[in-house]
Amino acid sequence: MANSPFLKTVEDYMWVQRYSRRTIDSYLYWIKYFIVFNEKRHPTELGDTDIKRFLTFLATERQVSAGTQSLALNAIVFLKTKFLGQTVGDLSGYSTSQKQRKLPVVLTGSEVSALLAQVVGRQKLMVALMYGSGLRRIELVRLRVKDIDFDFRQIRVINGKGGKHRLVTVADELLPPLREQVKRVGAIFTRDKAIEHYAGVWLPDALARKYPSAPFELGWHYLFPASRLSIDPSSGRLRRHHFDENNLNKAVKKAARDAGITKVVTCHTLRHSFATHLLQSGADIRTVQQQLGHADVKTTEIYTHVLKQGAQGVKSPLSALISDSMEF
Predict the structure, then answer these.
(1) Domain match, 185 and 39 both
(2) Is-contact 38 50, C-beta < 8 A?
(3) Does the record carry DNA-binding as a key word (predicted)?
(4) For the whole model, what pTM was predicted?
């Protein structure tokens, strides 16, 4: 992604520090934007005033969401403190984003069924898991074989958003296809081991040191592996990465179009639908919060709005007129 010597150096540093591909891409985008905004001055020359001016611009001119503004701030703080070794002072006083969070798009049960009917094979299993277990897209593709607990019918989500671990439910109906998927992964792993220079699956440095044989154990391999081997950019070793998350989102969008669903559907729509349907079936909000991995129950409460009839449960007066005397 980096197209300048400086950004390439930042990118290489993040790879060495084991940042994820998504984080690297996001941080490089905002770092580049920050530099360009400040007339391409070197970041070592930019201070707290320049940072606050940039953040204010994002809020007032770009009108980005609070989450996006926070991401930009994180990228700049990383650049200044981690990469450049400088300090960042008091950044209070900049204009914060006031853009309200959107209400989630939720599919009906029949729409979920129609969408599932448009996908086949492992992609169908992946889509079913996102809806049936409320998994984020990145959590799904990062699953390892060992994360599926067939005995207790649950999935261990390791290092989800915010680095948190949690247990989520898995539908009984998905256990047989999950066992078949594990067999397929085993067959791929057997072929990979026979290839010269194959370095096993990637593990974080701490785990690789603690379990030196783990990269060559089936349980640590990705449940949904990539279709081909590739060079790990952080080490230069030959490995098999996980299924590409962007391709998964494309598959979901195509399935929605093919199913004739007019709503804007993404992978996260399936997670929204999981939460809403759980509440609809009588699950308490704390249980849904735990399944989703939300730190604050207020984040989960947004799904209760979807369950109310009409807006805030108000019945339109037009309904009485139509039922009494009007036809369309």
Answers:
(1) no
(2) yes
(3) yes
(4) 0.79
Task: Provide the CA 216 distance to its chain's centre, in angstroms.
Answer: 27
Range of the domain at 37: 5-83
Per annotation, catalytic residue among 21, 122, 161, 254: 161
Is 197 marked active-site? no
Mark whether 237 is an active-site residue. no
Let me know whether 12 and 143 are in one domain.
no
Query: Rounded CA gap, 148 and 175, in Å?
Result: 9
Q: Is-catalytic flag, 271?
A: yes
Encoded tokens for 102: 């959107």
Q: Which of 27, 32, 94, 136 is catalytic?
A: 136
Same domain, 50 and 120: no
β partners of residue 156: 167
Catalytic residue flag (residue 303): yes
Domain C-terminal end among 83, 113, 138: 83
User: Is residue 161 among the annotated active site residues?
Assistant: yes
Q: Which of 27, 94, 198, 303 is catalytic?
A: 303
- Per the annotation, the verdict on 146 as an active-site residue is no
Q: Looking at 239, 240, 242, 271, which residue is catalytic?
A: 271
pLDDT tens-digit readout, 244-263 = 999 999 999 999 999 999 99
